[in-house]
Amino acid sequence: MKILVILAHPDKKSFNHAIAETVVKTLRTSGHQVVFHDLYGEEFPPALPSAEIPQATYLPPLISEHVNDLVSADGIIVVHPNWWGQPPAVLKGWIDRVVRPGAAYEFNEGDSGEGVPSGLLIAREAIVFTTSNTLEAREQAVFGDPLETIWKNCVFGLCGVDNFYRKNFGVVVTSTPGQRREWLDDVVAITNRYFP
Fold first, then answer.
1. pTM of this prediction?
2. Engineering a disulfide at 159: which of 10, 104, 129, 195 sits with its beta carbon 3.0 to 4.6 angstroms away?
């Protein structure tokens, strides 16, 4: 399978980078083709220019490359921290510019854009690995886990990716090396479960 892996964290020494490296190694060990994008490492430009909003428009080569990688992927894995209950801005910009109409979704004929889109992605499985410094009980009680809603319902659910799983690791800031090793073992197990 061709698996697209997207990483969004600026610190190369972060646990997010360790997760992404583990994902890529696990997938390659299983024989999958991996397309890996480190958005910060690539200095991905997140701001959506107005000229890119129309479906039929010229896209810069970098954006076209990312769109092609997304639409040709058999599976998708995204790795990012929970910042203010959201993905980092660079990843939100990636969604804005790459998860495009006509590529990831379309509106049905006669719909002027106010309806529910139909998903176009061929990927049927997506995993999102997140990290946070908020206790899970507080996340649920106070915030209601907005990342689950964003990824499951607002992104992948509208783009035709039906089999979705998200795993959060935390609290990272107080975690021990032993805990992080166990978490990376979980990353291997989850990746192998969805992409054997």
1. 0.94
2. 104
Q: How far apart are CA 167 and CA 184, in angstroms?
A: 11
Can you give the pLDDT at residue 113? Answer: 65
Q: Find the helix or strand (DSSP H, E) in which 183 lies.
A: helix 177-194
Residue 13 and residue 172 in contact, taking contact as beta carbons nearer than 8 Å? no
CB-based contacts of 138, cutoff 8 Å, min separation 6: none
Beta strands in 151-193 (DSSP E): 163-169
- Averages of pLDDT over runs of 10 residues in the chain (196 residues) are 98 98 98 98 98 95 98 98 95 98 89 82 98 79 84 96 96 96 98 98
Spatial separation of the C-alpha atoms in residues 69 and 67, rounded to whole Å: 5
35 φ, ψ to 5°?
-110, 115
Other CB atoms closer than 10 Å to residue 120's CB: what's the count?
15
In 3D space, the residue among 28, 36, 27, 33 whose CA is nearest the CA of residue 5 turns out to be 36
Rounded CA-CA distance 49/58 in Å is 11
Of the candidates 15, 17, 3, 6, the residue with the CA atom closest to the CA atom of residue 196: 3
Q: Assign residue 84 a region (left: φ > 0; alpha: ψ between -120 and 50; beta: otherwise).
A: left
Per-residue confidence (pLDDT) for residue 154, from 0 to 100:
94
